[in-house]
Amino acid sequence: MAQLLEIRWHGRGGQGSKTASILLGKACSEAGKFIQAFPEYGPERMGAPVIAYNRISDQQVSVHCQIEEPDLVVVLDPTLIATIDVAEGLKADGKIIVNTEMPASKMKEKLGYAGEVYTLDANGISEQELGKAFPNTPMLGAVVKVTNMFSMEEFMELIKKEFAAKFAHKPEVIAGNLQCIKRSFEEVKSE
Predict the structure, then answer these.
(1) Residue 75, helix vs strand vs coil
(2) CA distance 102 to 92
(3) What does the alpha-carbon distance between residue 65 and residue 38 come to, in Å, rounded to a whole number?
(4) What angle do CA 4, 8, 14 make, to 5 degrees?
(5) Measured in whole angstroms, how far is the alpha carbon of residue 191 from the centre of its chain?
(6) Which of 33, 52, 141, 172 could covalently link to 184 via disulfide, CB atoms 3.0 to 4.6 Å apart?
(7) Measured distance CA(54)–CA(71) in Å, rounded
(8) Buried b / exposed e across 52-78, counting CB within 10 Å, b at 16+?
(9) What percent of the chain has pLDDT over 90?
C-alpha cells in the first residue's frame, strides 16, 4: 500500500457510502494504520447524492479537508455517472470501481477515463446474500482487492470485529455480509 491512500466514495443516501468508509477506516485502524473516514452531505435525504472519504496511511495524517485528487473512486450508484464527473481530480494512475453489471471495458468507455476501471455487480451480490440491495458491503471487498491493502483472509478477520460491533443487535446478518465481501473480492473485474 502507498504511504497515503485517498479514496472518494460516490453513492446515494441509504446505500451506505458513509458506512463503508467508516467500516474500512475502522478495519485499517485495527491493523495499525492512521485513518480518516468522513462524509460530505448535500440535502440529507434518502436517494440524494452523498460523498464519503477515506485517508489511509502508515504515518500520521495531518491534512483535514475534502479529497480533491483521490487514488481510488468507488461508485455505489452508476446513475450518478450521468450527473456527476466521478473521475474529477482522479490521479493519472488512479482507479475507479463501479457497481454495475456492465463489463469494465464498456464502463471505461462510458466514463471516458484512460486509467484502470473495475466493475462489480454489488447489488446482485447483496440481493443474493442479504435479500436486499446494499452495495456498500460488496464494494468493501472490491476496494480491498483492487488496492491490495490486505489479503482476503486478513481483511475478513479485521472486518469480522467491526461487523460484530455494528450488528450486535442483528448477528444473523454478519455471515451474509462476510459472504458479500468474499464474493466481491473474487468477482470484481477490470478491463
Answers:
(1) strand
(2) 23
(3) 10
(4) 140
(5) 18
(6) 141
(7) 10
(8) bbbbbbeeeeeeeeebeebbbbbbbbb
(9) 82
For residues 164 and 42, give the distance between their C-alpha atoms in angstroms, rounded to a whole number.
Answer: 30
51: phi then psi, degrees, rounded to nearest 5: -120, 140
Domains belonging to the chain, first-starting first, are 4-190 (3.40.920.10)
Measured distance CA(118)–CA(95) in Å, rounded: 8
Residue 122 region by backbone torsions, left for phi larger than 0, else alpha for psi between -120 and 50, else beta:
alpha
Nearest to 166 by CA among 18, 67, 19, 2: 19
Q: What is the pLDDT of residues 46-104, one digit of tens each?
A: 778 899 999 999 999 988 899 999 999 999 999 999 999 999 999 999 999 999 999 99
DSSP state of 32: T
Name residue 68's amino acid.
E
